[in-house]
Specification:
By secondary structure, the chain is an all-alpha fold. The protein is built from six helices and no strands. The longest helix has 125 residues. It is rod-shaped and about 210 Å long.
């Protein structure tokens, strides 16, 4: 149970760290990408140091394997030389001494045989480990180079997108201004039409009033010609006193 809780806490911590990294990337993708590239470069540097160390180890192991193999070959050649001497020696005491020497060197060869195998195996393992690290180093270098190229391309795309966004915003602002101007023009047109309609109505009313006034106002002949004027007065029931007696009679009628 404790192990489960510990692992669960570790998973939650990893998720929190991952979430924080994603938030950082969304907040500042350029800096986050540059930080990731620096991390990759540090990883590449670490691999480079490991490659150097592995190469030194391989060189040492291979050198030791070569040295012990060389010593083994030298002892084997010495043993064969002693064997030939023994085969051609007639003196018993000399032959016995040679046999003791051969026995010593054969024992040495038998004793160093496992060491030779171990040194050769260590050299092979060191070479394989070095090759693996060199491949990892080459792959990491290629990934870093590709990542930098991708970053440059992404920055270029971001710049192009930003320019396009700015252009789109300017176009949208121009469209909004055009729409506002059209709306204002439309409102002005409505106002002008209303003013024109009002003026037309007032003009029509004025013309109607003028026509009515003209119609109701006596014309020049009716005022200038005394006979027509008298006839018009008589027709309307109005008489114009022409003598003193008529004028006096009119005054009396009013009283």
């Amino acid at each position: 149970m404790i192990s489960f809780i510990r692992n669960l806490v570790g998973v939650k911590t990893d998720q929190a760290v991952q979430g924080a990294m994603e938030a950082l990337v969304r907040w500042d993708p350029k800096s986050a990408t540059e930080a990731e590239l620096r991390t990759m470069e540090q990883h590449l540097d670490d691999l480079g140091r490991q490659v150097a160390e592995a190469r030194a180890i391989y060189d040492r192991e291979q050198r030791e394997a070569d040295e012990i193999k060389k010593l083994s070959n030298q002892r084997m050649a010495a043993a064969e030389h002693l064997q030939r001497q023994i085969d051609g020696e007639a003196d018993a005491s000399r032959k016995a001494a040679l046999e003791r020497s051969l026995e010593t060197i054969v024992a040495m060869l038998e004793e160093m045989a496992p060491d030779i195998e171990r040194e050769e195996r260590d050299a092979v393992d060191a070479r394989q480990f070095l090759e693996m690290l060199e491949k990892s180093y080459a792959d990491a270098g290629a990934k870093l180079k590709s990542a930098r190229a991708d970053l440059t391309r992404a920055q270029r795309d971001m710049g192009r997108a930003e320019q396009q966004r700015g252009m789109a915003e300017r176009q949208a602002e121009a469209a909004r201004r055009t729409a506002g101007l059209a709306s204002a023009t439309s409102g002005l047109t409505v106002a002008l039409k209303a003013m024109q309609d009002t003026a037309a109505k007032d003009l029509a009313a004025a013309e109607a009033a003028n026509a009515k006034a003209k119609l109701l106002t006596p014309s020049a002949p009716e005022k200038d010609d005394p006979n027509i004027a008298a006839a018009m007065a008589a027709a309307s029931g109005k008489t114009t006193p022409s003598s003193l007696s008529d004028r006096l009679a009119a005054l009396k009628a009013k009283h």
